[in-house]
């Protein structure tokens, strides 16, 4: 439900509904607009026709304004300059311990340096928080038993979220989640990496963890190929198991003869490799 004290344009409202956060304009641009309008009035009309303060009030009224009890700004700075202003509901930050703590101590603005979290990474973090809206997602079972992340997580959105990233972006999200103390996102990122290395050789794992960022989503194609191969292997095993069942009298006689031969060999040599060693140290022979 839209808050009546919050003034956003249509694009900002749409982004807030879609991604759970939105972007705010640089407030310094408002002052530039005020100066332009005031200069135009001064040149073409009486200098005192419209008070400068009134112009500023009109611009401020129609520009983005928000209810500080519901929303909070997150500023991303590059040295002394703010390069991006974000707006997100306060309750969405509860999944991050650091953001929750900073929200209580920093007032209406939380500032981060770009050396801590990059611009792209901040978008990824806020998109995750915006989707879950402060609700802790289901825990990811360990150990990871599949090479497909969509079979590991409860929320299909989480799988799509990490599948769209290359390895480098995933590693950056993991580092940011650890810095922000956001356990659910940290577990999601590490689970995705676990699916990529599952069943791989040490050399393959080394290449995956090299973090070259040049996979361009090809890992997902490899995962799909691997799952198909596993399904084919399982089908082949099922067929082999089926083929061992007697289909006719001739096959049945062959199986009986084989069993008799094995029994004879076991009786002649207690140390034969076909013996099955029992828990009490005795041997169980086929009879």
Number of DSSP strand runs: 6
Question: Over the alpha carbons, how many angstroms does the gyration radius reach?
Answer: 32 Å
Strand order across the largest sheet: 1-3-2-4
The N- and C-terminal alpha carbons lie at a distance of: 76 Å
* Structural class by helix and strand composition: alpha+beta
Uncertain runs with pLDDT below 50, 5 residues or more?
242-250, 262-287
N to C succession of SSEs: HEHHEEHEHHHHHHHEE
* Helix percent band: 40-55%
Mean pLDDT: 76
So what's the overall shape? elongated
Strand content: 5-15%
Q: Quick one: biggest sheet?
A: 4 strands, mixed
* Tally of helical runs: 11
List keywords for this structure.
alpha+beta; 287 residues; 4-stranded mixed sheet; single chain; disordered C terminus; elongated; 10% strand; two-stranded antiparallel ribbon
Descriptive account of the structure:
The protein is α+β, with helices and mostly antiparallel strands and 287 residues long. Helices cover 53% and strands 10% of the residues. It has eleven helices and six strands. The strands form two sheets. A four-stranded mixed β-sheet has the order 1-3-2-4. Strands 5-6 form a two-stranded antiparallel ribbon. Strand 5 and strand 6 form a beta hairpin. Helix 7 runs antiparallel to helix 8. The longest helix is centred in the C-terminal third of the chain and has 26 residues. The N and C termini lie far apart (76 Å).
């Amino acid at each position: 439900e839209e808050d009546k004290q919050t003034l956003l344009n249509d694009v900002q409202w749409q982004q807030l509904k879609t991604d759970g956060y939105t972007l705010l304009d640089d407030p310094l641009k408002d002052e530039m607009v005020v100066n332009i309008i005031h200069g135009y009035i001064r040149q073409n009309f009486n200098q005192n026709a419209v008070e400068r303060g009134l112009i500023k009030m009109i611009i401020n009224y129609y520009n983005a304004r928000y209810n500080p009890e519901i929303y909070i700004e997150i500023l991303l700075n590059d040295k002394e300059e703010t390069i991006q202003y974000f707006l997100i509901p306060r309750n969405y930050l509860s999944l991050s311990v650091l953001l929750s703590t900073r929200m209580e101590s920093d007032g209406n603005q939380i500032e981060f340096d770009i050396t801590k979290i990059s611009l792209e990474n901040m978008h990824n973090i806020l998109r995750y928080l915006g989707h879950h809206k402060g609700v802790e997602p289901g825990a990811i079972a360990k150990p990871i038993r599949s090479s497909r992340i969509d079979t590991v997580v409860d929320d299909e959105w989480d799988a799509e979220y990490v599948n769209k990233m290359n390895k480098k972006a995933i590693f950056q999200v993991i580092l940011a989640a650890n810095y922000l103390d956001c356990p659910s996102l940290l577990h999601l990122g590490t689970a995705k990496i676990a699916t990529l290395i599952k069943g791989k050789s040490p050399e393959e794992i080394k290449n995956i963890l090299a973090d070259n960022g040049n996979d361009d989503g090809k890992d997902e194609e490899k995962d799909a190929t691997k799952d198909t191969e596993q399904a084919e292997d399982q089908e082949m095993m099922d067929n082999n198991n089926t083929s061992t069942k007697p289909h006719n009298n001739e096959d049945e006689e062959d199986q009986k003869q084989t069993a008799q031969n094995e029994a004879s060999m076991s009786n002649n040599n207690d140390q034969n490799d076909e013996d099955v060693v029992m828990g009490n140290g005795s041997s169980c022979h086929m009879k």
